[in-house]
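Got a spare moment? Tell me how you read both lines of this record:
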Amino acid sequence: GGAPRVVCFIALCGGGQAVAAEAAAQLAAACDADGGGASHAADAMAVEAACATGPRAAPGVPLGAATVCASRLRGARFSLLAPDAADVLGCLDAASVADVVVFVQRVAPTRGGDSGEAGVAPSAMPAMRALCAQGLPAVAVALRGVAALPSAQRNAAKKAALAALVRDAALGEPDKAFSADSATDWAAAARALAELRARPPAWRGGGRAYVVAHALGFAPGATPTPEGADEVPAGAVVGTLALEGYVRGAALHAGQLLHVQGCGDFAMLRVEAAEEPAGAAERRRTGVAGAASTSGPASSAVLSAPGGKRHLLQVENEYDDLANEQTWPTAEELEQAEREAAARRAGKRRVPKGTSAYQAPWLLYEEDEADGNAEYGSDDDAMGDEEEQSEEEELQSEPDDDDGTGRPDDMLTDGELAENETAREAAWRARAAELAERRELAEVGEAEYPDEVDTPLDRPARHRFQKYRGLKSMRTGEWDSKEMLPLEYGRIFSFRSFGQARARAQREADTLLVAEDGAPCSGGVTGANAMEAEHGPEGACVAPGRYVRLLVANVPADRAQAVIEAVCGSEGVVAVNGGGLAACREVLVGCALLNHESKACVAHFRVTKDRGVGFPLASKQVMYMRAGFRRFLTRPIFSDDGLRSDKHRYLRFMPAAGTAVASMFCPIMFPSQPLLAFVPQTAAACAAASQAVAAGGIAAAPAALLGGARAAAASGELTLALSGSLVKCDPDRIILKRINLTGYPLKVHKRKAVVRWMFHNPDDVRWFRPLELWTKHGRRGRITEPVGTHGAMKCLFDVPIMQHDTVCASLYKRMYPKFPSDWLWLL
C-alpha cells in the first residue's frame, strides 16, 4: 500500500533526456515483464511519452500514466520522472519530490587508471552542482556499457565511473550501483529500488506534509475568511482550487495552511477522498492478487476539516503608522521651549558694521540655518548613503526617449514609434553595460581598499556622514537593535526566541502524527482524534499514502489560470473552464506549512558563491530564489559570517571565496531549508534586471526571473549564483556598514603628527574629534585640535608613528534589506 515511490532518472553521460527516458522505459518494461506483452508495451509507451518531452516542448502525458507496478515485488509501484540534465530547474523540481534519484552513467575501458569518458558531461555539471546544494534523497547509479567490456575490466571500470562522480560532481557514496544493460539487469534494479531504504533530505522532513499534484481544478467564488486572518482584497476575483495527489511526508491536517507553488499561501477548506488515477489504480489491482486499494471511501468523502485547529493566514503584521514613538510634550517642556524662544528673540546679535536695525532681522546666521535644518530635515538625511543612492537613482531613472522633435508618442507614426522603442532599448542596454562595468571596478577597488571612502569637497563631512556614528570596538560596542527602525519593520513579525518557536511549531506538527496512546496515525484519522471523527472529520488528519483532493480557498483567479496553463497545458485550461479536472503534466507541489510559516520576516541564509559565476554579485541585486518548495524574487544584502559578535559587517559584494550571510525579506522558515539563488548569465543582464526592478518593482522583472525562470535556465540565460542553508529568522540581527576616512601624516614628531586630507574644514575636525584613530601599521590615537582652515589636524598616538603610515577613522551605519514593493515575491 501507500503512495508510489517516485524515481527520477538523470543522464550524466550526455545524450540528454533521451538517455534518461530510455532508462525509465527499460525499468517499466522490467516491472511488467510478467504482466503480458500488451501491458508491457502500454507501460513502456506511456513512460517513453511521459519522459521524452523536452523542457520547452508540449507537456507530456499525465503523471499517473507514468506509474508502473512491479508484479513480482508484491505490487511495488514506481512513478517515473526523466528530466533533461540541461534543464537545471526541471531537475531540481523532479529531485525535490523524488524518493530515489538514479544517475545514468556510462563506463569506459580504463587505461592506466584513467576512466576515459566516464566523467560527468559538461552539460550536466550545472544541474549536478544545484542538486548537491539542494540536497538529494537516496541515490542510485545505473552504469551502462558494462556488458560490452571484457570481464577482467568490468570491476575496474565500475570503480572508475563511481570515482568520476565523486571527483567531478562532489557526490558522496551512492546508496546503490547496478549495471543497466540487459533486461535481467533492470529486473534486479527494480528489486533494488523497491527495497532501497528511503532517505529523504532533511529539509523535506520536520512534520511537513506535501502533495505532488496529479490533477488540478478551479471554481470561481470567494469563501469567508476566519476572524484574525488577512481579508481578501476588495474587487479581487478569487475561487477554490482543487488539487489531487498522494499525501507524502507526514500526516496532513485541513487546519494547516498550504503553499501552492506559483500561487502562494492559502487556507484549506477541507480534504476529501478521491479515486486514484485510472493507470495507477489498474496497476494496483492487477499487480498483486487480493491487494486492497487505498482509495478508501467513496469519492468526495470528507477526511479532514479545519474545525477549531485552523492556522490563521496572516502575512503582514497590523501596525499603526502614526505610532512611531511620538509623544506629546509635557507642560514643563512647553514652558521651557517658550522661555528659550523668548531668550532668542531678546538676545542681541552681532551684525556687520553699518547694518541698520531694519536690515538686521533679514540676515541669516549659522544658528538660524541649523535650526531650520533641525526642523525640516536636510537633503542629506533623506538622501542617505551617497554611493548607494546614486546607483539606486540611476537604476530608477528612465532613459531619454525623446525623438528629438518634441512631439508626444500619440502624434508619431508607427515607424517612428518603432524607432523610438529600439532607441530606448539600446539606451537601457548601454546603461546596464556601463553599470556592470562600474560594479566590476568597484569590486576590485573594494578588495584593494576595503571600506575606504573619500570625504567630499563640496559639502561638510558632518552633513555627508550624518547617519553614521563611531564605535570604539565593533565587536564589544553597544548598539540597540530596536533603535531607529524603518517603517517596514512594523509590518513583519519577530520571535522572542526563534529556537523555542521552532520547537513549539514542531511539537504542534508532531501531535498530528502520534495519538494520545502513542499509536501512529493510520487509516486517515489519528487515534487521538478518533472520538471526534465519530461525529465528523473536524480535528482528523489524513495519513501519508492516501490519494486525496485538497480544496484551497480564495486563490486569485489569474494566478490559478497561469499555474494551470503552465502545468496542465492549453488542453487543461479548456477542461478546467468546463468545470472538470485537468491532469498535470509537470511537477507541482502543495506543501503544508508549520505554524507561523506564512508570516513575513527577515531571514538569514549562510551562502557560498558558485564557482561558475565570474562576475560580481552586489548587495540589493535582484535574484531568483528557491528555498525548499518555495520560489520567490528578492534583493538580499550580504554580511560577514562572524560568530564572535552580535554585530556583523555589511559587504557590498559577495566574496568569491568563503561564506557570507544573505539577509532578505521572505516568509518565516525553520531550519534546515536549503537556498539556491539564480541570476542572469552575464553581468550586463544582472544590471538590466536590477534596473527594471528598481524602476517598476518586482512585477517589472524580466521574464527570465519572474515567469519564465525554467525556460531561461534551460536555455542558459540563468545560472546558479549562490547556495546555502537557513540560519535563522531574526529582524534584530545588526548589520553595520563600515566606512574608513583616511588621512596622511604631513609632519611627524615622535607620537605627534599633523594629518591632512581626512577633512577639509576645521568645523568637521571639531565635529569628529571624539572618534578614535587607527593606522594601517597598528597605531591608536586621537584628534587633539584643528590646524589652519583647510582641515588639517593635530593627532596624538600611543606610540611613535611613521611618516609613510595611513591614518584612518571608522564610522558605522546600520543596513536593512530592501523591502519588496509588492507581494509577488511570495510565489
